[in-house]
Structure to design on (451 residues):
């Protein structure tokens, strides 16, 4: 795309950042919800380029980070079963549960392969008919439809040696939960780009209205994020709480109804546990009854137990925007990307990992 | 996990044979050709259109014009800046 470069162009980013300096005249707290935003903000050094009074905090938008330890334990259990091949997104592989990680299971002899798409997991199932291919499905509304399409394809092709752990989650409910927390005190929400491509910018309207919260949907280039921050700062300072769409090339008001239909065909809303945020009603995507043959919990007889979080890990408070990584006593000491204790240090989208890689704080 | 760069559609393929809509697009990803599924695409792209890809699936189809409109929007957001060095009226 000829103009793709322009979204990274310093001239437009700089003009937007300058604009920010002109309008921000009091302390503002902005939460970015999406892990990809977190990483982009760090990678491009945006935290040091925005006015000091503009505080950027990260939210619960890294799917791996909000996957509870008990679910990770179930993934590891599956990996240790005979004849199971785990096909997983790479980010999950080093996340520690209470009894090791998928990576550790692999070093003990389990078969664990990293895939880029859930469809690749299905390809593995066709290639290895004598194995049961297990896909731990984590992700938000962007990923869930890709998994739904894969399940539908598995059914169409009559593939029986494929199953998933249905661990996908939907975004608006935890945001409502966060905003109901009087301690959080967030002025504006930088809404995720690609989740919004599916659910649509209008999906945040109830949140904006009920909590008088300014919202802006933004893309991932520096200029996109700067535009989102300009929108939010203007809204907050003018006392407006609307949803402004700064990512019109990808996000529409109504979103992608085709993807949502696929998601609704395969999944049903259920209550689910978020690491750090607890049980949130209607925030999980379980398999519908017609698709229970693909449910790994039954097929592989997985034992789901509540598991305490790693001792001393502050991921929960970080995911809720209450603490920053350096506030965790383990950060950079016993917990590093090489030897992570909590999920926020493992996932490339985790706040602790982004802090460690890109900020001076080690 | 989100790859934000739009990829240009080079070719459309049908895998189920008789269906009217293509199910796979061959896209140009940084000089490499890659197949992406169109199951979730909000609109089936034409050759030359762009798609946003997530986990091997096109999740949104866009044209160059749509990208340019977005760019214009951002320019306007910054337009209240006075031109370099000049005072605000
Ligand atoms: S630094 Fe490590 S232990 Fe501390 S909150 Fe982050 S992931 Fe958890």
């Amino acid at each position: 795309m000829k103009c793709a470069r322009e979204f990274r162009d310093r001239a437009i980013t700089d003009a937007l950042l300058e604009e920010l300096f002109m309008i921000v005249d009091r302390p503002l707290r902005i939460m970015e919800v999406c892990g990809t935003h977190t990483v982009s903000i760090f990678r491009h050094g945006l935290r040091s380029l925005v006015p000091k009074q503009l505080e950027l905090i990260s939210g619960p938008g890294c799917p791996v980070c909000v996957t509870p330890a008990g679910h990770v334990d179930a993934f590891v259990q599956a990996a240790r079963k005979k004849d199971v091949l785990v096909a997983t997104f790479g980010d999950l592989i080093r996340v520690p549960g209470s009894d090791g990680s998928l990576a550790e299971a692999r070093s003990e002899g389990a078969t664990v392969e990293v895939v880029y798409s859930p469809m690749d997991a299905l390809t593995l199932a066709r290639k290895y008919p004598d194995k049961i291919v297990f896909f731990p499905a984590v992700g938000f509304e962007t990923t869930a439809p890709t998994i739904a399409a894969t399940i539908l394809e598995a059914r169409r092709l009559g593939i029986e040696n494929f199953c998933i752990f249905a661990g996908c989650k939907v975004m608006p409910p935890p945001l409502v939960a966060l905003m109901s927390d009087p301690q959080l005190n967030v002025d504006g929400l930088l809404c995720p780009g690609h989740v919004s491509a599916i659910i649509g910018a209008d999906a945040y309207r109830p949140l904006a209205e009920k909590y008088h919260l300014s919202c802006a949907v933004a893309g991932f280039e520096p200029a996109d994020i700067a535009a989102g921050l300009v929108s939010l700062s203007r809204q907050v300072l003018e006392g407006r709480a609307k949803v402004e769409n700064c990512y019109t090339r990808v996000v529409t008001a109504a979103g992608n109804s085709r993807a949502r239909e696929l998601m609704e065909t395969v999944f049903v809303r259920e209550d689910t546990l978020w690491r750090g945020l607890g049980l949130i009603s209607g925030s999980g995507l379980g398999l519908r009854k017609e698709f229970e043959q693909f449910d790994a919990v039954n097929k592989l007889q997985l034992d789901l137990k509540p598991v305490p979080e790693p001792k001393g890990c502050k991921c929960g408070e970080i995911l809720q925007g209450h603490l920053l990584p350096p506030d965790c006593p383990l950060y950079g000491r016993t917990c590093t990307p090489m030897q992570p204790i909590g999920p926020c240090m493992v996932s490339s989208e985790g706040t602790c990992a982004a802090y460690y890689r890109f900020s001076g704080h080690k | 996990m989100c790859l934000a760069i739009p990829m240009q559609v080079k070719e459309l393929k049908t895998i189920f044979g008789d269906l009217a809509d293509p199910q796979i697009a061959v896209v140009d990803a940084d000089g490499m050709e890659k197949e992406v599924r169109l199951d979730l695409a909000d609109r089936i792209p034409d050759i030359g259109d762009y798609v946003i890809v997530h986990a091997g699936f096109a999740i949104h189809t866009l044209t160059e014009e749509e990208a340019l409109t977005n760019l214009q929007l951002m320019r306007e957001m910054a337009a209240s800046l006075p031109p370099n060095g000049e005072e605000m009226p």
